Amino acid sequence: FYNTLTSTCTTNIVSHVNEIAPNRIPFSFKVLMPAYSDELAYKIGLIDNSIPLEELKKKYHINERALKYADSPFFSKKIRE
Q1: Integer Rg of the chain from CA
Q2: What's the CA gap between 25 and 46, in Å, rounded?
Q3: Tell me, what's the pLDDT at 58?
Q4: CB burial string 4-14: b at 16+ within 10 A, e below
Q5: pLDDT tens digits, residue range 46-74?
Q6: What is the biggest distance separating any 2 CA atoms in the chain, rounded to whole angstroms?
Q7: Helix intervals (H) in 1-81
Q8: For the chain, what is the mean pLDDT?
């Protein structure tokens, strides 16, 4: 049994990161609501924040190419072609 509010993929990643680098990710409701975790990661510099967040989302959007090569051992290369 686990708590679906405080023990999620996102909260567990935050916990592990903060064990390695204390207080790297501050407490925020955005951690509890994964739909907003990208905003928090952007704000605190965990992901590229040199371009607007909306542009970043478009740039890294999972598209048909990513789906097509999902099981390929050359996935990383294929999605950048």
Answers
A1: 15
A2: 9
A3: 87
A4: eeeebebbeeb
A5: 999 999 999 998 888 878 888 899 999 99
A6: 44
A7: 9-20, 29-32, 37-43, 53-59, 64-68, 75-78
A8: 89
Q: Cα separation of 69 and 81, whole Å?
A: 11
How far apart are the C-alpha atoms of 51 and 67, rounded to whole Å? 25
- Return the C-alpha torsion angle 71, 72, 76, 78, nearest 10: -120
C-alpha–C-alpha distance, residues 74 and 53, integer Å: 28
- Contacting residues for 75 by C-beta, under 8 A, at least 6 apart: 66, 69
Tokens of 50: 């040199």
Q: How many residues are present in the chain?
A: 81
